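Please, structure for the following, as tokens.
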Amino acid sequence: GVRATEDPWLHPLLAEVRTATANVFASSNSTDRPPAVGVIINTSLNPKGRPITNEIVDIIRMFCTPEGVELDYVLFEEDWLIHRSTALARGACEGVEAGPVASERSHPDGTPTI
């Protein structure tokens, strides 16, 4: 598990997720309720047919272009939570175009970026 002393940012987030899932199942009439768990799984940053996105330029590109339509928010460096519709409405994504992800680019000498 994640302890508050080890990760003071992530611990309360996971605790809130656990509380939210417990509340969802508490409102059901089922006697066969699963245990509440604090789990966050990120599967949004690997667009179909591409490797997992791990560079900020690729994350911004995905967030701002049509391939990011399923992303509602993006969180940068635990400080900047950005809502996609707000970013688009305020012009934050103007000029951002789809392109290859980092693993598909290469250095000027031709060696691939890994």
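Strands lie at 73-76, 80-83. The mean pLDDT is 75.
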